Amino acid sequence: MPPKSRTASPGPVARKESEDPEVRRRNAANAETKAKAAPEKKTKDATPAKAEQAERAGGRPFFREKSIYALQPDARWLQPSLAFPIYASTLLITLACCLFLEPSFKALRLQYTVVASGLLLYRMYYYARKEWMLFFIDLCFVNSILLLYSLWSCESGCSREWLLATYIVAQGPVAGATFPLQTPLTLHHPEAFESFFLHASPMWMAYAVRWRWPNLLGPIPPVSELLSVGFWRLYFPWSACYLVFLLLQPFLPDRIAGLETLMDGFILPASTAQSRLTAKRQEYSKYAFNVMKATILHAVLSGSGFLAAAMAYQYHEVQVVWIFCVLLGCLASGARFYYQSATPDYVPPGVYRGFRNMGLAWAMVLPTYLHCAGYVPWL
């Protein structure tokens, strides 16, 4: 006896309904709706907790898979949004207050603090979600925090050497880093704008303090003294602590050892938390050697920034040219960013472009300094 079919034959009512065109149309529409809802249900079921566990199992922060980083070129950044007028007005107001207008010191300090602190707090939230909190021990973040501290605490209570060191680092290594990093001036997202503001705005504030309230800094020191103060008073202590941490990081608990630092972007590019952890621990001697090389290179490039800042401190014309070069480089990088967002096939220039722009900046800064100092009066 053959087995009974698992599909029952349709009864009279079912046959009658299946022959009705309206019923068939409604059933087809319901089936299509269910098919479209299936992927949404699957996505909904993948709760953030489950997504996080899955990403952590693969060694990648889950937030990276759920969003595009604000400085990754994408067509979505070209869509009109309130971010563009908000950050454009923030940029113009801050530039005007620091470079062109003449507000009181307290008014300028308040305006700059509100903007800089707000952007820093947002970046802390943003980086915490992406597990990039160790980026906050980098020099640009440390200097920004120290600058804000000095603006409020050093009207009469800080040493002259400390004020000069804060100035020279803000003007030099932090601003000069925009060239090798090719930092873009972008306005589509708070994180994207903060990347530019963090590097470029401290030099604007330092300009205002230097040329409007010179009594805060005292007599003009020579270039050699500025180089020495900037390096030994601030840069060297930070660099030594940073180097020690990087060398000890592989021996710390997994949670900390797997976190990404700025140096990892050059030493271990495109790595996950797990692959970084493996590389740092299983190939420690290679990792330590690369850390030492990267630290030395950072110091050399910072030395270039120190020299530019020390020259800018001497003469107003040099200061203006240095600020102009940094702004122009960021504008060019920003234009390339948006062009790449609109043209996915575009291949941006490599790191050499940043060093070329640094050379072009020196081609403008050095002759200006030599002319102001009287070495080449015919320029």
Structure description:
With 379 residues, the chain is mainly α. It has one domain. The protein is 72% helix and 0% strand. The chain contains 17 helices and no strands. Helix 14 packs across helix 15. It is globular and about 55 Å long.
Distance between the termini: 109 Å
Helix proportion range:
over 70%
* Residue fraction in strands: under 5%
State the order of secondary-structure elements, H for helix, E for strand. Answer: HHHHHHHHHHHHHHHHH
Main sheet: strands, sense, barrel: none
Unreliable stretches (pLDDT < 50, length at least 5) are: 1-26, 32-66
Query: How many domains in all?
Result: 1
What is the number of helices? 17
Average pLDDT level: 84
Annotation, overall tally of beta strands: 0
Short description:
The chain has 379 residues and is an all-alpha fold. It has 17 helices and no strands.
Please give the structural blueprint.
Blueprint: H1 12-18, H2 21-45, H3 48-57, H4 62-66, H5 83-100, H6 105-130, H7 139-153, H8 160-176, H9 178-181, H10 190-212, H11 223-248, H12 254-257, H13 264-267, H14 273-282, H15 284-314, H16 316-342, H17 351-372
